[in-house]
Amino acid sequence: MAATNKNQKPHAIMISFHLQGHIIPFVNLALKLASKGFSVTFAHLDFIHHQISKSHYNTTEIDIFAQARSSGLDINYTTISDGFPVEFDRAANFNQHLESFMYKFPDKVDEFVGNLISSSDSNYFLLADTFSIWSAKIAKKYGLVNVSFWTEPALVFSLYYHLDLLRENGHVPVNGRTEIVDYVPGIPSINTKDFMSYFQDSDLQLLHKIIFRAFDVVKSADFILCNTVHELEIAIISALQQKQPFYSIGPLFPADFSKTAIARSLLPESNSDEWLNSKSPGSVLYVSFGSLAKIDKKVIFEIAGGLLLGEVNFIWVIRPGIVDFDSGGIFPEGFEDVTRDRGLIIPWCAQNQVLLNPAIGGFLTHCGWNSVLESVWCGVPMICYPLFTDQITNRKLVVDDWRVGLNLCDGEFITRDEVKEKIGILMSGKRSDELRKEIGKVRKILENALTKDGSSERNFDCFVKDVSDEIF
Ligand code: UDX
Predict the structure, then answer these.
(1) Is the pTM higher than 0.90?
(2) Ligand 1: centre distance to CA 370 (Å)
(3) Predicted pLDDT at 260
(4) Which ipTM did the prediction report?
(5) Could you report the per-residue pLDDT of 6-53, keeping only the tens digit for each?
(6) Cβ 348 under 6 angstroms from ligand 1
(7) Dist. CA 24 → ligand 1 center (Å)
(8) Alpha-helical segments (H) within 126-205
(9) Is 265 in the pocket of ligand 1 (CB under 6 A)?
(10) Chain centroid, CA 139 distance in Å
């Protein structure tokens, strides 16, 4: 264990994982830890810093922490290189980037942590995203308490955690079967079709290997933090707590929910306030498939067809690069006419701000975990069109368990008729009222968890105490 200095508070070293859906809750976690009196050194990869700065013109990621410092929080912000120049096209060289992340980046982290530790006698501990496969090795080398942060639901964590058990029982890889699994601790029953995409195929890519390795590494973490709420996943969390100290501390939202995206977003945000404010309450469907997934051109075509047939207003985030297309349009004939009045297409937005707008009546979503939590928080029911990774499993929570969303095509090919039908059901009528009633209940659970005596707030304080006890 590293030497401790009783006169100083615990000091978290946080190196963010470079995907948008991980950056947002990780920044929120840093701010929350600092608000509880800890010191924080927060590092982004330098290409992420560059992208955020470029996207926000005068607002850089540094500003968000500078603001926090000026209000008395102890946060230092810095960057770390992943070994490639900032301009290197990581998406186009995905495997090269991943390989380097696995084998070379840990040396950079080692150097970074070693320099930090030798520069002051703070009471450092390591707080890394669960996907950071280097964390256990670095924590061990420097004798640091090792905290792992999981950005997805406990259900998904538990399935990855029990990968060996699922393999022994022949349920992973799934290979197209649909069978009920009832032996994972804390999960009474789950269909194999609802497993994450990385469990579905036998063809293991480098990305699968990284994720599976991450779940070997997490077993040696001293503490695990999860962006979920105890009351939503009681049995799973209790079962995980039998294995390791596991704290549900979500939803990790910023203090001002409506201003979340600035300086956490990798892309510039279009402002759609004026357009939304011109629409009547509950009349607009928000459509977005998150920060990561690619979508087939045919799928875009069918969704656009459904929006064209449907009668509702819509605001659709079509992220640059979300669809590969060579030539020709991606929308059906007549679609562009509706976008003059009834629809708005934008490359990126401040999602929380959009979801909060009273004009929004529904969300057609890929079921990314942040989007699910944000939609519940704003009381907006969902149409679920999961694409890959945990999104497949998150759909089960939204539709089957909480009953606050509708399935779209359930793994079959999407059609414009079904898109139109589901939009109609979501936006008005008896089923829509039921969904709204149920989402109000789940929202209340989130709200309660964040009150002073709520479960997430108490768990956070408990973590703060436990990690302090472990350090001193
Ligand atoms: C993926 C996983 O599916 C998710 O479950 C995991 O936790 C992170 O990685 P991603 O595609 O990034 O998800 O989706 P999501 O988790 O929903 O995160 C996207 C974030 O970007 C949300 O916080 C959302 O508010 C934000 N966003 C999205 C914007 O600010 N503007 C947009 O236009 C779209």
Answers:
(1) yes
(2) 5
(3) 46
(4) 0.98
(5) 778 999 999 999 899 999 999 999 999 999 999 999 999 999 988 888
(6) yes
(7) 8
(8) 135-142, 154-161, 163-168, 197-200
(9) yes
(10) 25
